[in-house]
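Morning, I've got a small favour to ask if you have a moment. I've been staring at a protein lately and its backbone has me curious. You're getting the sequence in one-letter code plus the fold written as tokens. I've dropped the whole record in just underneath, so have a look:
=====
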Amino acid sequence: MASIFTRIINGELPAYKVAEDDKHLAFLDIQPVSLGHVLVIPKKETDYLFSLSESELCELMLFARKVAKRMKKAIDCSRISVTVIGLEVPHAHIHLIPINTMDDCNFSRPKLNVEHAQLQAIADKINAVN
């Protein structure tokens, strides 16, 4: 059965996309730990990040870097943190999280409930950055 991320890639489920190329997709987390929280995924369905080939992992990280740089320009924050947990969805993914304090990337606190309009506005802001 396809992961929820594969269903997003295939257009079966909607997403607030902020970047895409032939091999990767970046979109807003709809249950973020911080406003602007982005998930970066390979389009190839792979359960575990370190199951990717060396070149695939490097390409994914370089794609994530491009996204993080655009996020930093679009979102008022001190840094973009990078986190890999990999237990929530059986599809390799990287969390890019805008932070001002360490608590901004604390996954043990309740997730934010963000309205559609606010998510769309954040995606639009990131997409406007070249």
Q: What stands out?
A: The beta strands are 17-20, 24-28, 38-42, 79-83, 94-99. Helices lie at 4-9, 54-74, 116-127. The two ends are 36 Å apart (CA to CA).
